[in-house]
Design goal:
The protein is an alpha+beta fold and 426 residues long. The chain folds into two domains: 3-19 and 230-425, Alpha-beta prism (UDP-n-acetylglucosamine1-carboxyvinyl-transferase, Chain); 22-227, UDP-n-acetylglucosamine1-carboxyvinyl-transferase, Chain, CATH 3.65.10. Helices cover 30% and strands 26% of the residues. The chain has helices spanning 22-31, 48-59, 85-90, 98-105, 124-132, 163-173, 189-200, 232-244, 260-269, 307-315, 334-339, 370-382, 393-396, 402-407; strands at 3-7, 13-17, 38-42, 63-67, 70-74, 107-111, 136-140, 143-147, 155-157, 179-183, 204-206, 212-216, 225-227, 248-252, 272-276, 279-283, 293-295, 320-324, 344-348, 351-355, 364-366, 386-390, 412-418, 424-425. Helix 12 links the parallel strand 21 and strand 22 (386-390). Helix 5 (124-132) runs parallel beside helix 6 (163-173), helix 6 (163-173) runs parallel beside helix 7 (189-200) and helix 10 (307-315) runs parallel beside helix 12. The longest helix is centred in the middle third of the chain and has 13 residues, at 232-244. It binds ligand EPZ. The site of ligand EPZ has 24 residues, from helix 1, helix 5, helix 6 and helix 12.
């Protein structure tokens, strides 16, 4: 398992171009299965999660190439809608394939994706949404078989604005007979990107980005080319790292409007943020101020995917901050690792009480999940001394060579890969 060795204490500085959004690319790759032919998707970063999704599509018979951030798909040879359990377990986002494969083949077999480090990750809203569209679902242990001769439009209300369930239902509804409305839909920018992609293929969807999405079923879709939006969570991760190291960083190819809640919080800590089109400039020279209370909630509120990262900045702030996590029940696993670096954080159920300290110290820490790992990298960049981050594969799921990304901003960060005889090579 790879490790990252970070020499901390150096302010980040320079300019960086932000990668395409993992959480937009994954559903868009799945949605490509709705159409027969060649689909080209640009701005798709090289990530473990993208690799897993492309391997699943190949397993189902699709041709898939990924070169220089461009994915070329040929779905005309797609011949199966049975997703192997081993591949499902590698990445829970394979659940996004349910809607498209059911719509295309009239049947799909998946396996319970199971929970992960951050929580139970139920899929009941996905299944009930597909049932509302006319699907029959048979569960046999972890195996879930889904059938529908013809999907029919329906009025669907989500008890919780689930991102994945909203996307799965949208994708299943585009070829259904009649009108589908999804109320209490998730409003994330990635859902708007999915709507734009599906409409480019000839779908008739309106409302993505609001809490009510309407889909008018069509007979057929046509292949297209598309470019994915920038990754707002990677953008936010770099912004927080710039602030935590008291650096000066310019971020290019961003969507500032996707980050209003983070920009608001960073400004409250005293960080200077300037926005000009798709450019964000971040500057910090002083110790950050604490924030009384931050609550993670569905978009456009403060995103759960930036909770662990902002906690590192608050761990260095002058005062006490309170962070409440309302989306995932297990998303504080980075706290113990930060404590090993000198952070003073107490967790009580879904709240973390963060008493800022003047500095963090390098230590050997372990990434437990994707965003917790990113937070530990930020902590290593800000800390005095050397930090070793282990289990880096979690980070590689969402960041394209994070050591190169931060290296472009002057970070002293090296990846070590163990080889057979247990020595390591940079
Ligand atoms: C998406 O996950 C993102 N992943 C997550 O990003 C993100 O944290 C999450 O949305 C929330 O914004 C992708 O887009 C690939 P949800 P998703 O369905 O769709 C409960 C990252 O770091 N729920 O909105 O799985 C669920 O248990 C990842 O990039 C049900 O109860 O999120 C959770 O508590 C992590 N039943 C809450 O809703 C369901 O059927 C949010 O889940 C579905 C979800």
């Amino acid at each position: 398992m790879d490790k990252l060795v970070i020499e901390g204490g150096k302010p980040l500085s320079g300019t960086i171009v932000i990668q395409g959004a993992k959480n937009a690319a994954l559903p868009i790759l799945a949605a490509s299965m709705l159409v027969e032919g060649k689909v080209t998707i640009d701005h798709v970063p090289k990530l473990l999660d993208i690799d897993v999704m492309l391997n699943i599509l190949r397993e189902l018979g699709c041709r898939a190439e990924h070169e220089d951030e461009t994915v070329q798909l040929d779905t005309s040879t797609l011949h199966s809608s049975h997703i192997p359990e081993a591949l499902m377990r590698q990445m829970r986002s394979s659940i996004f394939l349910m809607g498209p494969l059911l719509a295309r083949f009239g049947e799909v077999t998946i396996y319970q994706p199971g929970g992960c480090a951050i929580g139970e990750r139920k899929i009941d809203l996905h299944l009930s949404g597909l049932q509302a569209l006319g699907a029959e679902i048979e569960e046999d242990g972890s195996r879930i078989a889904c059938y529908a001769k013809k999907l029919r439009g329906a009025e669907i209300h989500l008890d919780f604005p689930s991102v994945g369930a909203t996307e799965n239902i949208m994708m299943a509804a585009v070829l259904a007979e009649g009108l589908t409305t999804i109320s209490n839909a998730a409003r994330e920018p990635e859902i708007q990107d999915l709507q734009h992609f599906l409409n480019r293929m000839g779908a008739k969807i309106i409302g993505a980005g609001t809490d009510t999405i309407t889909v008018e079923g069509v007979e057929k879709l046509e292949p297209c080319s598309y470019q994915v939006i920038p990754d707002r969570i990677v953008t936010g991760t770099v912004m927080v790292a710039a602030a935590a190291t008291r650096g000066q960083v310019t971020l290019l190819n961003t969507c500032p409007s996707h980050l209003t809640s983070l920009i608001h919080v960073l400004r409250r800590t005293g960080v200077q943020i300037a926005v000009d089109g798709d450019i964000i400039k971040v500057g910090a020279a002083m110790r950050p101020k604490s924030i009384d209370r931050i609550v993670t909630s569905p978009y456009p509120a403060f995103p759960t995917d930036l909770q662990s990262q902002i906690m590192v900045l608050l761990a260095l702030a002058d005062g006490v901050s309170v962070m409440k996590e309302t989306i995932f029940e297990g998303r504080f696993k980075h706290v113990d690792e930060l404590a090993r670096m000198g952070a003073d954080i107490r967790v009580d159920l879904s709240s973390a009480f963060i008493r800022g300290v003047s500095r963090l110290y390098g230590a050997t820490v372990e990434a437990t999940d994707l965003r917790a790992g990113a937070a530990l990298v930020i902590a290593g960049l800000a800390a005095q001394g050397k930090t070793v981050v282990e289990q880096v594969h979690h980070i590689d799921r969402g960041y394209d060579r994070i050591e190169a990304m931060f290296g472009r901003l002057g970070a002293r960060m090296t990846r070590f890969t163990p080889i057979a005889n247990n020595t390591v090579v940079p």
